[in-house]
């Protein structure tokens, strides 16, 4: 049974919720990524190490790679807590994605380095896969590894956390899909950065005859493991937004209970009660949707039905977070429009997570196109 | 009679499925023209008697009262199988409302005399709650029952009384006293519809059916033994949520039927090449998908806690409004057929666009308007203050 206050379905998940809440209460302040922060700090290396030591970055690694071998449902529970606390550290992009990939790599010195970085949090890994705006899967990737001389050629966009990444995993398409590792200071690599809504940087990588440090996977298997890592990240991005929405609703309810106008608490006005009730119902749907998708993935990883459910979840959670954040700004009134309050930040984080890894509209279309998804 | 508690859930499902395939007349199954069909009148009585004869009646009633005494999980299977088999729904106030109330609040004598008659359909009941000036604000009701020796004298009027013209009996909330709070002084009374002084006038609804009625009471004499529970304390009885009705009302089955019809219409009209249409269909399909996930979570909660909690209030709101949204979509994509009154056809598909639209409207009104459900949610679940 799912605990309606935490979303946890079992003891392991309840423990993850507890430790996440404790850690973020002591080691994280959302103020550090706000617009009025003189020195924005989207990545706290110490917090990242603590997350690694708690085993969160290696959550999806099997036990024989010293991971906790937990399911995607657990990763979702954790992502939801990150969202609820507006934590910017790249658990999804630089924890979940590399660990899902790592779990399926063949043994090598590189894999050993990746495992040890996921366990210690010392160095950050990111994945460069996307080449077009609005891309949902790996179809049509044009970056390639030349067969003569083994050089990477092409362009990648929106590569997460390029400001802190030490290692970049590059997916090269073509007839022989390849996953290669490059250094951020490789000759022939040019990086153009954009600041994102969580104050992190995403990079456009221009690869001109870049020599990989290592080739980690080749062939259809390489494509599958990258595709699955993206699917898991999509689910986690959904859960992150469900957490954002819950947190904003909590703030809204607190405000409605205490703020007095026209000589009565705002929460006594029926129109605001119904707004709150509608948001609550939407957030319940969002939670149920991502949990169902995660359970389905855990039962049958990579299955079409789980992918379809992940699409539904990504669309629903984006809707829930966006609506709740916008309603929060309205209900808090003048304060809601102030950067000092937290609603604006929630909306900003939603805009980042709702557009990353597929928009609501794209996921709804993918959901409806799948056979058997619509009754 | 079978004791299903000794059998596994899959065995139970199989047995019911097999029985239904033999005994549910296909002619009464829901169709593309009547996707939300409900049995009534003689058809309803015959079907309930068939269930009774086959020992499949009253899934939630305990065995000691002649029911199946099913666990929550098996009750869910029961409802799922009926929906899968496209069995038309039945509103049986005797089984669904009065029976559980009598079991909790009735005297031994009331239980022994009335419950078996409900099961055998010798008595068919309707529910007399709403009045012309007491709808969502039910406690403002004024139909008066004055105690005169060993009987009550009842005067007043009920309205929107579903199937009153099919019923032999009515259970009603009546005013027996005036106190500080209007919820006090309401009593729960049973009446024979054939009593002198009761007059029923059917009201045609916007689908063209006569499903509900006005019921007038003029000096109707009702024996005191027909009082359920204590005098003046009927409000608590009516408010008690007995059994799992809230969950069955929130079943996604009707939405599933509506979406199935929508899909058929999209296909026969060729609208599946229209991106605006397919995008809207995708939203509705995802709405249903996510609602089913939430329904599943809450049913699991109830299964483990043993009783529905306040969160279950949202099921009715979500399910009814989704069904309405799908019916609105159907109306839009049916184009000119939406202007046809009665049955027509889109391609080879028989439809009645008018009927499905009209029948999707009352579901957000009956059983507590959705506005009232949102009030409850705001107070009971979100802890927002009252005025």
How do the helices and strands line up, and which of them pair or pack?
The complex is a heterodimer of chains A (375) and B (387).
Chain A: H1 11-27, H2 45-53, H3 72-84, H4 91-103, H5 109-120, E1 125-128, E2 144-145, E3 152-159, E4 167-172, E5 178-183, E6 189-195, E7 201-210, E8 214-218, H6 220-258, E9 260-261, E10 264-265, H7 270-299, H8 304-331, H9 343-355, H10 360-369
Parallel strand pairs in A: 1-4
Antiparallel strand pairs in A: 2-3, 3-7, 4-5, 5-8, 6-7, 9-10
Helix pairs in contact in A: 1-3, 2-5, 3-6, 4-5, 4-6, 6-7, 6-8, 6-9, 7-8, 8-9, 8-10
Chain B: H1 9-23, E1 38-39, H2 41-53, H3 72-84, E2 89-90, H4 93-105, H5 108-119, E3 125-128, E4 144-148, E5 151-162, E6 169-175, E7 186-192, E8 198-204, E9 210-223, E10 227-228, H6 234-239, H7 245-249, H8 253-269, H9 275-305, H10 313-333, E11 344-346, E12 349-351, H11 353-359, H12 370-381
Parallel strand pairs in B: 1-2, 3-6
Antiparallel strand pairs in B: 4-5, 5-9, 6-7, 7-10, 8-9, 11-12
Helix pairs in contact in B: 1-3, 4-5, 8-9, 8-10, 9-10, 10-11, 10-12
């Amino acid at each position: 049974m799912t605990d309606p206050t935490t979303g946890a379905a079992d003891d392991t998940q309840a423990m993850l919720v507890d430790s996440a809440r404790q850690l973020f209460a002591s080691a994280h302040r959302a103020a550090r990524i706000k617009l009025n922060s003189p020195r924005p700090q989207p990545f706290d290396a110490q917090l990242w190490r603590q997350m690694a030591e708690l085993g969160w970055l290696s959550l999806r690694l099997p036990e024989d790679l010293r991971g906790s071998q937990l399911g995607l449902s657990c990763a979702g529970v954790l992502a939801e807590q990150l969202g609820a606390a507006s934590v910017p550290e790249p658990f999804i992009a630089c924890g979940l994605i590399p660990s899902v990939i790592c779990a399926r790599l063949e043994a090598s010195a590189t894999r050993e380095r990746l495992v040890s970085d996921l366990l210690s949090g010392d160095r950050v890994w990111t994945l460069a896969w996307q080449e077009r705006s609005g891309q949902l899967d790996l179809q049509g990737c044009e970056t390639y590894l030349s067969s003569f001389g083994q050089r990477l050629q092409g362009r990648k966009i929106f590569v997460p956390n390029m400001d802190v990444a030490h290692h970049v995993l590059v997916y090269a398409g073509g007839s022989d899909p390849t996953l290669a590792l490059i250094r951020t200071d490789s000759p022939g690599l040019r990086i153009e950065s954009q600041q994102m809504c969580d104050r992190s940087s995403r990079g456009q990588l221009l690869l001109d005859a870049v020599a990989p440090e290592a080739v980690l996977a080749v062939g259809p298997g390489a494509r599958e493991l990258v595709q699955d890592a993206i699917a898991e990240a999509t689910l986690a991005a959904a859960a992150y937004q469900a957490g954002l929405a819950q947190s904003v609703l909590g703030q809204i309810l607190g405000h409605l209970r205490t703020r007095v106008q026209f000589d009565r608490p705002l929460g006594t006005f029926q129109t605001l009660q119904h707004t709150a009730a509608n948001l609550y119902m939407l957030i319940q749907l969002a939670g149920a949707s991502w949990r169902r998708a995660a359970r389905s993935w855990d039962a049958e990883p990579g299955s079409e039905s789980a992918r379809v459910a992940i699409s539904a979840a990504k669309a629903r959670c984006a809707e829930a977070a966006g609506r709740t954040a916008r309603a929060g700004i309205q209900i808090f009134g003048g304060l809601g429009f102030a950067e000092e309050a937290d609603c604006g930040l929630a909306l900003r984080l939603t805009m980042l997570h709702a557009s990353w890894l597929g928009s609501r509209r794209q996921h709804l279309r993918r959901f409806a196109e799948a056979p058997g998804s619509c009754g | 009679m079978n004791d299903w508690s000794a059998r596994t859930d899959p065995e139970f499902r199989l047995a019911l499925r097999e029985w239904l395939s033999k005994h549910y007349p296909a002619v009464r199954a829901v169709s593309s023209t009547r996707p939300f069909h409900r049995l009534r009148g003689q058809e309803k009585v015959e079907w309930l008697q068939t269930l009774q004869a086959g020992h499949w009646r009253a899934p939630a009633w305990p065995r000691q009262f002649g029911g199946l005494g099913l666990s929550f999980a098996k009750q869910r299977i029961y409802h799922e199988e009926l929906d899968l088999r496209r069995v038309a729904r039945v509103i049986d106030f005797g089984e669904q409302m009065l029976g559980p109330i009598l079991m909790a609040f009735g005297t031994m004598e009331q239980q022994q005399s009335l419950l078996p008659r409900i099961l055998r359909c010798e008595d068919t009941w309707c529910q007399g709650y709403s009045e012309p000036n007491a709808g969502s604000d039910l406690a403002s009701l004024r139909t008066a029952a004055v105690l005169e020796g060993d009987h009550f004298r009842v005067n007043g009027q009920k309205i929107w009384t579903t199937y009153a013209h099919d019923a032999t009996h009515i259970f009603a909330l009546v005013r027996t006293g005036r106190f500080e709070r209007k919820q006090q002084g309401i009593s729960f009374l049973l009446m024979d519809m054939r009593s002198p002084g009761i007059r029923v006038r059917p009201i045609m609804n916007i689908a063209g059916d006569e499903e509900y009625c006005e019921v007038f009471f003029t000096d109707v004499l009702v024996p005191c033994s027909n009082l359920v529970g204590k005098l003046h304390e009927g409000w608590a009885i009516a408010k008690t949520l007995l059994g799992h009705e809230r969950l069955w009302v929130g079943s996604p089955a009707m939405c599933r039927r509506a979406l199935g019809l929508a899909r058929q219409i999209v296909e026969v009209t060729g609208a599946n090449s229209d991106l605006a249409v397919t995008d809207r269909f995708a939203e509705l399909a995802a709405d249903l998908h996510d609602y089913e996930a939430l329904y599943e979570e809450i049913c699991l909660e109830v299964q483990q806690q043993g009783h529905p909690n306040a969160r279950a209030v949202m099921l009715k709101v979500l399910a009814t409004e989704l069904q309405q949204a799908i019916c609105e979509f159907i109306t839009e994509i049916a184009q000119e057929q939406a202007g046809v009154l009665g049955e027509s056809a889109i391609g080879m598909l028989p439809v009645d666009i008018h009927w499905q639209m009209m029948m999707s409207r009352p579901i957000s009104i009956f059983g507590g308007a959705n506005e009232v459900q949102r009030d409850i949610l705001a107070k009971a679940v979100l802890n927002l203050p009252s005025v």
